[in-house]
Structures are given as C-alpha cells and as structure tokens.
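Appendix B, Record 12. Input sequence as logged:
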Amino acid sequence: MNLLSGRWKFGLFLASCTAFMWGVLPIALKGVLTTLDPMTTTFFRYAIAAALITPYLVARKKLVNRHKLTSVKLNLQLLLAGSLLVCNYALYIFGLERTTPEAAQLMMQVAPVMLLLAGVLVFKERFSILQWLGFGIFVSGLLMFFSPRFADIFVSLSDYGIGLLMLATAANTWVGYAIMQKFLIKEFNPEETMLVFYWIGAIAFLPFSSFDALSELTKVQWSLLAFCGLNTLIAYGCFSEALAHIEASRVSAVIAMTPLVTLLLVQLIPMPGIVAESLQSVTILGAMLVVTGSIMTATLKSRS
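Logged structural output:
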C-alpha cells in the first residue's frame, strides 16, 4: 500500500531544506567556535533543542509512551543511545575545530554508508552488487579528497589529522546510536526518543561548559548559536516530513548532496574565521565521487 502523499515536489523541497541546514551547520559552528569553546557550544545546541521541543510535545500530547519509562531495560537502552549521540556531538565538534567545514561534512558521510553496512551484519539486510560498487566509489572518493593530507594523517599526525580521526570516530558512534534507535523506535515514537536524548546531552555537557565567554559573543555569533540549536529541530522536522511525500531512497539521495552545499558555500563566500580547503583537481573529483558513491549505496538496493 502506498502511503506517500504524492506531493513529490514538496518532498524534494523538504529534503533539500534538510541538506541545506546540515550543509550550513559546520559553518555556523565554526563562527561560534572563534569565541566559545566546543563543550559550551554543544551544550547550547542540546539545551536550545530540549527547551523548544519539550513544551511542544507536551502541548501536542505526543508523549504517549512515557509509561514505558518504568522499564529498566528501556531506560538503559535510552541511556546507551543518548550517550552514543553525546559522543558523536563531542567528537564532531572537536574534529571540526581542528579541520574545515568541508572536511567535516565529507568525513561524516561515512556514517550513513556504515549504517547501511551495519544493516547487512545486524539486521541481515541484502546489499546489491551496485551498492558494493557505490561503496567502492565512496571509499575511493574519500582517499582522493584527503590524499594531499596523507602526511598529516599517517606520518606526522598533525592537529588536522587528529581532527579527521575524531570525525571518523564520530561517524561510527552515530552508527551505534542509529542502530539503538532502530530498536527503540519499536517502543517509542521518534519525538519521544529525541526529547530524552536532548536532555541527556544538555545534562552531560553542562558540567564541562563555561559561560564566561558569553559576554564576548557578537550579535552575529549569538544568532549563529541560536541557529545551531534550531538547526537540529528544523532539519529533523523537514527530514521526517519529506519521508511522508517521497521515497526514503530519494530523500537519501538529496541529503547525500550535503557536503557539496558546504563546499560551495565555503569556497564561494569568504567568511571571517573560516579557513577553506585548498582545492585541487584530485580533491574536487574526490568530493564528487564521495557524493556519487553515497547516492549509489543509499538508492541502488536489491529489489529481491
């Protein structure tokens, strides 16, 4: 039975909004990190999202499964998933601090691709030959994009190299979180789990936050900080709504374009505090292959 609305143009628009929001996010975070430390910045990301989503869900009476919170097993699963997401946010922000927005977004494409591979191992899903081809193209693209930085990664392990390792680890912790979320979604609706995760994150980052530098933030930076908090809610909302109008494979294909959004914005619009990657023919081709491989891996599933 087809449960899609048929409003495919609106669905593509929503998916494009998600890609744009996620593409802009590392740029906004970089703008805040020139003054605010990573832990405090991430605390505000969680706290703003938690403060906004809580009254909304209560008013809309969306917390229909709250009685299940008496289960020790479910509470432990929620805590584990929330902790993995906290690790993801922490590793991402520290990795971003040491690298560039383009590098961060390309490396984070590892997450959805690894989740598809995890589906083969954990959920016994099938992986088509074309998906394996897409995976090979994806890995080749990553190697090509970061090839000028191999010395930073494999020889000197510079600050940039450490940042890339953090981002790669962040992508894998997100895979762990996503697997846990697949189990939790059988007991809770997505809004309920995100509410719990936002509060876990806000509480986890609060003790490590310092608010002394808040007075040094400019009006632009305050706006960027607010945007970072709103970003997850808006992007997630657009993503969820897009799935009601077009197939998940098409949504995935559009979202795979996120690194190109970041790359174009950083390269074409000079911004204070943002250092752009030095692009060469090999890095440009690598970025294109990463996106192409991501789209192939997400969409060319076996029909049998």
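The two ends are 18 Å apart (CA to CA).
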